[in-house]
Automatic annotation (TrEMBL):
Coiled coil: none
Keyword Ribosomal protein: yes
GO molecular function: large ribosomal subunit rRNA binding; structural constituent of ribosome
Protein known as: Large ribosomal subunit protein uL11
Keywords: Ribonucleoprotein, Ribosomal protein
InterPro entries the UniProt entry points to: Ribosomal_uL11, Ribosomal_uL11_C, Ribosomal_uL11_C_sf, Ribosomal_uL11_CS, Ribosomal_uL11_N, Ribosomal_uL11_N_sf
Origin organism lineage: Eukaryota, Metazoa, Ecdysozoa, Nematoda, Chromadorea
Large ribosomal subunit protein uL11 C-terminal domain boundaries: 96-179
GO biological process: translation
Length: 201
């Protein structure tokens, strides 16, 4: 027999979602269903009378999706990772942003219409036209990059903050933005040569 479900046990689930939007319930239900967060009804026929019995009294996947959308309002339109900490059939939602999400948020770009972007992507795929769908060609300062590195420091494997800053600059290069009007790799070279000094922690 499988082990009995213990509601007091802490379970952690990571979900990838678009900030400020309610995700598909069909994708959320299989992840949270086994953890006792989905309301289930069992029907028992007792003397020809149908009696509903509630197995788990908690929110539906739709309610959890709404809670995730509320928790990620600051990250509207950006793909972020959410951490669901589940105990006693109650889900606590925390946002775990990636370096790319933090950089794009710091660029303060206007919100994009994802439906129009998807339509454009389909047209380009059909007609095989080379096009960049999303350009993050803004400019950041070194101070902004250092602040992002401080936020990412607990998850970085670098020994010093300088190494984390270099990691963030590598992500900035992938995203496509510039730092102090220069290519991010030029800033990395300046840090290595000692022209730009990164403070200790």
């Amino acid at each position: 027999m499988p082990p009995k479900f213990d509601p007091s046990e802490i379970k952690i689930v990571y979900l990838r979602c678009v900030g400020g939007e309610v995700g598909a319930t069909s994708a959320l239900a299989p992840k949270v269903g086994p953890l006792g967060l989905v309301r289930k009804f069992y029907l028992f026929i007792v003397q020809e009378v149908i009696v509903p019995e509630i197995a788990f009294v908690c929110g539906s996947p739709k309610k959890i999706g709404d809670d995730i959308a509320k928790a990620t309002q600051d990250w509207k339109g950006l793909k972020v990772t959410c951490k669901l900490t589940i105990q006693n059939r109650v889900a606590k939602i925390d946002v775990v942003p990636s370096a790319a999400s933090l950089l794009i948020k710091e660029l303060k770009e206007p919100a994009r219409d994802r439906k129009k972007a998807l339509q454009l992507k389909r047209l380009v795929t059909v007609f095989r036209v080379n096009s960049e769908f999303v350009k993050h060609n803004g400019d950041l300062t070194v101070e902004q990059v250092i602040n992002i590195a401080r936020q990412m420091r607990p998850r970085s494997m670098a020994k010093k903050l300088e190494g984390t800053v270099k990691e963030i600059l590598g992500t900035a290069q992938s995203v496509g933005c510039t730092v102090n009007g220069q290519h991010p790799h030029d800033i990395v070279d300046a840090i290595r040569s000692g022209d730009i000094v990164i403070p200790e922690e």
